């Protein structure tokens, strides 16, 4: 249990609860859920520019990272086609991957196919089912993709001023504005309460909020004096109590709850809001293809990690289809912006390619 690990090392409840957020992030789990300690480890492993366990902002926004990878690939001869949806993986008479078919009817032939889509989309939607072992299909169907995350992107006309550390008169960002700001994290009990509400189909009445202001470090993201605020919140069930859907009223009601909480820490925040974008779990699935809205393509629980990710005997990036590889968050070692799954899968694919 994460709570046991934190109790062993720390005494301060606010510190324990703040650290606990990285153990439940993206997971429909509480700090008291068995196995939650691993997710904390997953979020602090590695380093950034020599700083162990550190995280950073991407200059120009997260899309700039994708663009940098795209430019690097294009410089080495790769052809990139955006907005060209794949409808199926093409197979030869020997059952080997031979490329992909696009929704517009175009067929792209290839000796190898790498998919960073989720295991569910890759194997249940894009691959002919009769070519896959039944137990493999059943395993992919049974992957736990439950997600508690609602992401809210906010545009504000001034920097939030927190009661605990008020802004200076010139309104310039202070050190805490450049960090991840954790709200409603005074105790692990609060997080557990928020989780419990969601398990009964109700959005948390006092949700866990991770607030970042990337424009505090990267002014080009917003007009002068204005800022963009990113809110990573949970817990919100995919399906609300009574089977109610996430309609506009439900989404706005939850966002209002989140904003009321922020207002208590930073009076004037609500008045500064000039726009907001609310992405509930169903929105995340519809827009980004995340199964169940899960940011990791599947829960990072111990039964879905290491040799069992995405399925036992298929954790090495190869799939039951020769020439088809899984290289996204649903592969080992899981989600997060670190590129490990892609790098590992590329090495396996290159090894196989040399033998073709």
From TrEMBL:
Q: Where in the cell is it found?
A: Mitochondrion matrix
Q: Name one Pfam family in it.
A: Amino_oxidase
Query: Cellular component GO terms, alphabetically?
Result: mitochondrial matrix
Subunit notes for this chain? Interacts with COX5B; this interaction may contribute to localize PYROXD2 to the inner face of the inner mitochondrial membrane.
Give the protein family.
Belongs to the carotenoid/retinoid oxidoreductase family.
Function field:
Probable oxidoreductase that may play a role as regulator of mitochondrial function.
What is this protein's record name?
A: Pyridine nucleotide-disulfide oxidoreductase domain-containing protein 2
The species this protein belongs to is Cuculus canorus
